[in-house]
Amino acid sequence: MDNIRHIDILVIGAGPAGSMFGYLAGKAGLNCLVADFATFPREKICGGGLTPKAWRLLDSLMPGIRYDYLPVRHMHFQLDDSPSCEFESEHEIRMTNRKDFDYALLQYYLQAGGELLKEAFLRYELQKDGRILVTMKSGLQLTCNYLIAADGSNSSVRRQMFGKVPNQMLFMEEYAPKQGPAEAFVYFSRRWVPGGFYKFSSLGHDIYGFRGPVTDREIFSQLLKEFNVPETRFMGAFISLHTVKSTVPNIILIGDAGGFANKITGEGLYDAFKTAYNAIKAITEHKPFEKTNRQIFRKMEMQEKNSHFFFGPKGYKLLDFCMRHPRFTKWIFDAKMKRETLMWKLKQRVSGN
Ligand SMILES: Cc1cc2nc3c(=O)[nH]c(=O)nc-3n(C[C@H](O)[C@H](O)[C@H](O)COP(=O)(O)OP(=O)(O)OC[C@H]3O[C@@H](n4cnc5c(N)ncnc54)[C@H](O)[C@@H]3O)c2cc1C
Questions:
Q1: What b-and-e string marks burial along 262-280, b requiring 16 or more CB atoms within 10 Å of the CB?
Q2: CA of 269 to the centre of ligand 1 (A)
Q3: Phi, psi of 190, deg, nearest 5
Q4: Fewer Cβ within 10 Å of end Cβ, the chain: N or C?
């Protein structure tokens, strides 16, 4: 044991959750090391859309961070044969390229003095002295006081703790040359519930995606044909819709590893940043993560309930109403974004920033 390197905090995964955690840990003066098996910049299948609350949180936690994005304000929704609903949102959604975006976050962490280890996590063992012994796939061993699982929706740390996690939703995406105006388009249909087909205009290309009860290549292929999208190469990735609470106090699961993605939209970047922030709070304030992250756990429970409503018959009636009343829909959409902006400004004022 004597020749095994010891770090206070070991983070598995250098995606948005891991890089954010690593940066905040360094800023708080904590001894932290981030490990990832990938060679960066690496690909990540994702729409890369940052809603206002996500980019505002990012900009406030990593001041001065620079990343490329396409601002999108044109919203376009459709439900089967209902009239389509289109409007300009008051607040922009920033469409990023995840490969470059994640690299920018990682660089921010490294430039602040952070360290990255290129290793794949294999397993952890709890020691009698309270430390955690971590073995990497290469055989390298490390000990730490805290283990942070930021290793995404197929998290190996979570799998060791809970076994196979149910409720993984497969999303499929296809990148295609730009066509039509820059927009965020979502097409709902009673043909597949819960789910939707979408087009997000992005940097240099459009992203088409689909999520259904069973994400079926044939349905996706058919939809691409319906929308005249040339089919080249599908890519699929899971989002874990099942939020878990760690059974070990000094192992904390953040971002997709903990199942912190929106149960309706699949948006996960905001909660990757927020859970990283709450994990730092738990460590520096010596509080359980369940306490510092309480609001997010509650929000996840609510989303689970709301998703049953949203993707049920009543939800589709409401959607149909929204399609027929675009001015009302714009008002709701802007009001939600406005509320998020207000909450953010209020928090900034309270924290004195
Ligand atoms: C198709 C699709 C579209 C999406 N669109 C959006 C969107 O528009 N907006 C949005 O906000 N969210 C979106 N999401 C969700 C978003 O991608 C995730 O919520 C986000 O990536 C979570 O970040 P993370 O850091 O937790 O995990 P990840 O980004 O997955 O990072 C995990 C990191 O851990 C590393 N890793 C994994 N296993 C190991 C191991 N054993 N050892 C070492 N390293 C390991 C990986 O290499 C990776 O770098 C989408 C997801 C999908 C699948």
A1: bbbbbbbbbbbbbbbbbbb
A2: 8
A3: -75, -10
A4: C
Read off the pLDDT band of 215 (50, 70, 90): low
Q: What is the mean pLDDT of residues 183-194?
A: 89
Smallest CA-to-CA distance from 237 within 168, 170, 164 is with 170
Dump pLDDT digits (tens) for 242-251. 999 999 999 9
Cα radius of gyration (the chain):
21
Q: Which residues line ligand 1 (CB under 6 A)?
A: 12-18, 35-38, 44-49, 54, 120-121, 150-152, 156, 171, 173, 209, 237, 239, 255-257, 261, 266-269, 272
The structure's pTM equals 0.94
SS3 152: coil
Cα–Cα distance measured from residue 267 to residue 123, given in angstroms and rounded to the nearest whole number: 29
1-48+98-165+242-308 homologous superfamily = FAD/NAD(P)-binding domain (3.50.50.60)
Atom from ligand 1 closest to the CA of residue 44: 29
Break the chain into its structural domains and give their ranges.
1-48+98-165+242-308
